[in-house]
Amino acid sequence: MDFLKLTQLRHSVRSYATQPVEPEKLNYILECARLAPSAVNKQPWKFLVVQSEEGRKNICRCYAREWLAEAPLYIVVCAAESEAWTRRFDGKNHADIDAAIATEHICLAAAEQGLGSCWVCNFDPALMQELFRFEPGTHPVAIIPIGYPNEKEQPEAKRKPASDIVTYL
Ligand SMILES: Cc1cc2nc3c(=O)[nH]c(=O)nc-3n(C[C@H](O)[C@H](O)[C@H](O)COP(=O)(O)O)c2cc1C
Q: What is the CATH number of the domain that holds 94?
């Protein structure tokens, strides 16, 4: 599959089948995340794979949506700001940027494997911390549900035209 096709295929899936995700596919996705680029190659990320009944329930307490509960597994992508590169000019910490790149690798890899995913950032961060106890200096950036899509058809991608967003100098 060429890259344009893959980016067209990837979309936010908000309906999942009960079919479990094969461990080989999960490993493939995690490997694609591991190979993501990061500022000064600091790799300031952690990936929490949530598959247990209790863990899945806790995820859904932090972002209570019926469709989210359908997913058989979640990857919580965490940024380790204490390990990340910081730009000396203004002190900008790049952990969230690095974690976001790895997150999109996950979503694209899932799509390539015939799986659906969805970025979820609108979770309750305090409740996440209480339930999952992330290491100090580390915070969750996104919850990514992963599973086989249960959709009749892929929704149309709504995007701004290139003329609105691209400038040539
Ligand atoms: C940083 C980020 C945060 C997002 N958070 C949520 C979320 O909390 N809940 C949700 O349903 N979708 C969330 N989305 C999905 C977006 O709504 C979706 O990517 C956008 O509408 C474009 O649609 P598409 O992914 O189908 O192409 C998020 C996407 C990004 C990139």
A: 3.40.109.10
Nearest residue (by CA) to ligand 1, atom 31, is: 119
The pTM for the full model equals 0.98
Dist CA 102 CA 30 (whole Å): 9
Q: How far is the CA of 89 from the centre of ligand 1 (A)?
A: 31
Does 39 map to a domain?
yes
Give the domain range for residue 66. 3-150
Q: Edge-to-edge, what's the strand order for the sheet holding 138-147?
A: 45-50, 73-80, 138-147, 116-117
Alpha-carbon dihedral of residues 58, 64, 70, 75, nearest 10 degrees? Answer: -50
Q: 37-60, pLDDT tens digit by residue?
A: 999 999 999 999 999 999 999 999
Query: Is 21 within the bounds of a domain?
Result: yes
User: Which of 150, 161, 119 minimizes the C-alpha distance to 16?
Assistant: 150
Q: Which atom of ligand 1 is nearest to the CA of 100?
A: 1
Counted domains in the chain: 1
Residue pointed to by tokens 């899932």: 110
User: Per the domain annotation, does 156 fall within a domain?
Assistant: no
Element (H, E) at 53: helix 53-62
In a domain? residue 168: no
